[in-house]
């Protein structure tokens, strides 16, 4: 881990922390999800650097060691898109591969739509490209974790009962399960985890401490502005089509597959209507955190995809 270098760059009014490793001419930019930071890509960064690529992973604005959005009420996914372009410009990189997971996949897809000349290819862990529909998940119960976290002050009140390390641990445990986090009436999301619940075996106490320290610095309110607190921007692209090569890696035990319509959308291959060149790989035992759970398998899939794309570009 010591070989990963760290720097800070000023991007659009925010000081961003960026982790970097490798000297290859082909660049790979990683965008994390929640409750993550650059560190969630540590295994992949080291692996692709060893395969001859240059890896760059920022803490997204509002996360980890990066600064907060100066106007949090205006935070949006477009900030992550514009920040990524600014990072590429800062490093004088014309185009790059983009890898995202969880909500980090959405700005990756947006970049491929809005700035296709800057993108060589895309890897998404768990999240296919789909046209956003604001009411897509309205049939889920009232205790659906996203619905709860969109209520002003509700997550803050729930989390305030515990220290940061416990909150982060609980969220990670919840997201590691194969069921959607849904609280019963009169209960909160944190109540879904019992203190005796075991921590996923693929994370060490050192990993937990690293994540906890990052969220002690940022808190949870700033990271949760996007994607939970803020309403999503209106999607205005007609007949969207991702034209760059895409690798979608799906974990069979990722709770996101239980979201209404998602598994059928992937397995029926309707997703191909919106992606011109798509590879789909399944990890049957993979959870929401498959890149930490099965790093060797995920690394090999990514490196194979990168090598193939580089051989034909």
What report would you give on this structure?
By secondary structure, the chain is of the alpha/beta class. Helix 1 (42-50) crosses helix 10 (295-312), helix 2 (77-90) packs across helix 3 (105-114) and helix 6 crosses helix 7 (205-218). The chain has helices spanning 42-50, 77-90, 105-114, 145-150, 154-159, 164-176, 205-218, 262-267, 290-293, 295-312, and strands spanning 5-11, 14-21, 27-31, 54-58, 96-101, 119-125, 242-251, 275-283. An eight-stranded mixed sheet has the order 1-2-4-3-5-6-7-8, sandwiched between helices. It starts with a strand and ends with a helix. Strand 3 (27-31), helix 1 and strand 4 (54-58) form a beta-alpha-beta unit. The longest helix is centred in the last third of the chain and has 18 residues, at 295-312. Helices cover 32% and strands 18% of the residues. The chain has ten helices and eight strands. The chain has one domain: 3-Layer(aba) Sandwich (Rossmann fold), CATH 3.40.50.
Task: Supply the CATH class.
Answer: Alpha Beta
The largest beta-sheet arranges its strands as 1-2-4-3-5-6-7-8
Number of domains: 1
Main β-sheet description: 8 strands, mixed
- Whole-number radius of gyration? 18 Å
Structural class: alpha/beta
How far apart the termini lie comes to 31 Å
The percentage of residues in β strands lies in: 15-25%
Number of strands: 8
Would you list the SSEs in sequence order as H and E?
A: EEEHEHEHEHHHHEHEHH
Query: What is the assigned CATH homologous superfamily?
Result: Alpha/Beta hydrolase fold, catalytic domain
* Shape estimate: globular
Count of helical regions:
10
Kindly report the average pLDDT value. 93
- Poorly predicted sequence stretches spanning 5 or more consecutive residues: none
- Percent in helix: 25-40%
CATH hierarchy: architecture: 3-Layer(aba) Sandwich
Under CATH, the topology can be stated as: Rossmann fold
């Amino acid at each position: 881990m010591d070989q990963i270098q760290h720097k800070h760059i000023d991007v659009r009014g925010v000081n961003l922390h960026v982790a970097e490793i490798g000297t290859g001419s082909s660049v790979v930019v990683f965008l994390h999800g929640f409750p993550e930071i650059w560190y969630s890509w540590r295994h992949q960064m080291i692996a692709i650097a060893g395969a001859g690529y240059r890896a760059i992973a920022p803490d997204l604005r509002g996360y980890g060691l990066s600064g907060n959005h100066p106007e949090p009420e205006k935070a949006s996914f477009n900030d992550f898109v514009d920040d990524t372009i600014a990072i590429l410009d800062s490093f004088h990189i014309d185009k790059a591969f983009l890898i995202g997971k969880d909500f980090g996949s959405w700005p990756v897809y947006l970049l491929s739509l809005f700035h296709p000349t800057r993108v060589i290819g895309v890897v998404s862990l768990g999240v296919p490209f789909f046209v956003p529909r604001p009411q897509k998940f309205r049939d889920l119960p009232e205790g659906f974790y996203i619905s709860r976290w969109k209520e002003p002050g509700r997550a803050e009140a729930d989390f305030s009962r515990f220290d940061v390390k416990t909150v982060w641990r609980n969220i990670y445990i919840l997201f590691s399960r194969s069921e959607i986090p849904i609280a019963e009436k009169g209960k909160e999301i944190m109540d879904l985890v019992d203190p005796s619940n075991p921590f996923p075996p693929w994370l060490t106490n050192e990993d937990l401490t690293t994540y906890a320290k990052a969220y002690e610095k940022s808190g949870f309110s700033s990271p949760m502005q996007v994607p939970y607190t803020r309403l999503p921007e209106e999607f205005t692209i007609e007949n969207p089509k991702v034209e760059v090569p895409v690798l979608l890696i799906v974990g069979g035990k990722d709770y996101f597959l239980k979201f209404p319509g998602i598994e059928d959308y992937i397995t029926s291959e309707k997703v191909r209507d919106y992606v011109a060149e798509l590879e789909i790989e399944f990890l049957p035992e993979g959870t929401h955190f498959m890149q930490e759970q099965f790093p060797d398998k995920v690394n090999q899939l990514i490196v194979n995809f990168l090598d193939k794309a580089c051989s034909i570009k």
